[in-house]
Amino acid sequence: SYYLKESKGSRRWLLFLEGGWYCFNRENCDTRYDTMRRLMSSREWPATRVGTGILSSQPEENPHWWNANMVFIPYCSSDVWSGASSKSEKNEYAFMGALIIQEVIKELVGKGLGTAKVLLLAGSSAGGTGVLLNVDRVAEQLEEMGYQGIQVRGLADSGWFLDNKQYRRTDCIDTITCAPTEAIRRGIRYWNGIVPERCKLQFKEGEEWNCFFGYKIYPTLRCPVFVVQWLFDEAQLTVDNVHLTGQPVQEGQWLYIQNLGRELRNTLKDVTASFAPACLSHEIITRNHWTDIQVKGTSLPRALHCWDRSLHESNKNGKAPLKGCPIHLIDSCPWPHCNPSCPTIRDQFTGQEMNVIQFLMHMGFDVQKMAQQQGLEPSKLLGMLSSGN
């Protein structure tokens, strides 16, 4: 099932794929069913939902998409939107993420999607990875149905994971402790997960799990995709076993976190349209504060608007990029929350808001030592930190 807000005058459609991790064997799927039933069954879903962020119909919360047709597709397949297997004797659960998207498209064509000019397939977290896995398939499906005129695009939020080495290696017991590559490797078999043909061809048989990682699938995609990714993504840190509890982080963790930012920045350098703030967070496009975050003075809604225009222009005459309308925005400062527009951080135990300096101290950041390394006075470094330079 899905939620729909029609906007009769508009020929723009936004389909949003919800996120929420995944499960990859009988045991952790049973646990998920007991503890997070709404992510596995539609039985108790509410009759209506309120759209927020890019799904809001308020222009002040959603400056460029507020009057589009909005579709929210809840996540009940637990398979990163990749599965194509029905329930069987062998398998207690059905995993049909890829098929759900196809069915929703089929049904929407009769509800006005057939006359659309633009279809933006968006998603956050597992839904963001789901965008990368499904955007080309949606375009092919519409072409096969005779709707060649619809421009299909993707917007992947917080779904660009790295298959890096964990900070501390752990055995693959559940979704949280399992290294990302191992979890996906097991999951793909369990779900009968499918990946796009063009990506599959890049890897040996049995290595399809590679296509779940943004930097490996992105070069194979035909549809334009805009990538939104925090440089210090909390879900990434969780699977990498960096747990930021109330204790100050050790130096090893601190270096690991900084290195993660560097690695992520590196994987985005050839991504045409991207927005990557140096913040510690997860998911953004459906948050109502999504208009506040800026990279180099440009907000995310503005960058998406610029991207829209650049695609519109390139369809016409392949002109140079628009002046003063950037679409490749990646923070260059090196540690979490060095960008002053990052979302507020709260102490996990007291719930108190923290400013950047309190947060860095809390993380075990040694101002004296760091100032020495940078050849600065400690007070000068503090000034730079609080202004976000």
Automatic annotation (TrEMBL):
Recorded GO MF terms: palmitoleyl hydrolase activity
> In which organism is this protein found?
Eubucco bourcierii (red-headed barbet)
Which biological process annotations from GO are given for this protein? Answer: negative regulation of canonical Wnt signaling pathway
Protein name as catalogued: NOTUM carboxylesterase
Give me the gene this protein comes from: Notum
The entry assigns this protein to a family as follows:
Belongs to the pectinacetylesterase family. Notum subfamily.
InterPro entries the record matches = PAE/NOTUM
